[in-house]
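Run folding on both entries below.
>entry_1
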Amino acid sequence: MATEENNKPFLLPGALFAKDGDYVITTVLGSCIAVCLWDPKLRRGGMNHYKLPLWNGDGLPSPKFGNIAIAKLIEHMLEMGCSKRTLKAKVFGGGAVLQSASGFLNVGERNIEIAQELLMQEQIPIIASDVGGGVSRKVIFNTQDGSILMKRSQTGQ
């Protein structure tokens, strides 16, 4: 779900946002991934925020899964008149911030891999990314100019 106030939507896990207009989309990521798509020709953009790499077919397909979230974001961009040929991607998150008794879970790593694989299959170039490591990130995406402001946590938590 995205909460929207004054053209500044905040994406919660499992949400995506892509609308025609100028927006400043914000999200906070740990092991989750945000894929930002931008069409520099039409100056339109969108972002998703997914928690897990793959939907296994149980229940309803949800954008909390990377394979669903990326496909849905591309679909929304195309519905706004964007061309897949002109789309550019920026990918953030996938930090190793979840720890189990046996060490760090590799959810973030698998989330990164699915983003890279699916965008490559769709022939959408990743022109910027900040992924992995042991940090969380705050990402702010301006859909008017495609710019990203990103801040890493200082503590590594």
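>entry_2
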Amino acid sequence: MKLVCPSCGATASAEAWTNDTAIRYTFEVLVQLPSPVLRQSLSYLGLFRQGTKALPWRRALAVAKSLKDLVETGTVHWQGGETRPCNAEIWGKAIEATLASGPKGLKNHNYLRKCAWEMAAELAAKMENDREAARQKRGRDVDEEPALLSETAQKAIEKLKRSWGEK
């Protein structure tokens, strides 16, 4: 099977692409990404090319590993703001937004983190509302009348009352 690089037009067999350990490890890391992120990951890696140069596979591997680490944390932090929950769906949308804005020659994931952090604000607000609703429900449950005692417990209490009254 012959593969053609969409960026440079190089043609090689599938086996040739897997002979290089950096290429093999890069793809091993990429396939571990959740599907919303994986769908955009190769295009996202292309943003790390410097000028007209190709992205070296060792650099692609480092970028892929750091992307995987970002996504696995389940949170995102940006420049002194609060740490917000960030699921794979948000990371995928943040990658789409990053690709749409078209930055070139990225050096790190800061642009992606900023996009994800802004998108995660809605999820953080929803989670806070859910926590507050649960807290209020617990408060209402405590204020409600106590549960009725079982018949056995009521009989035991009556028996104790009678025995104390006889003394």
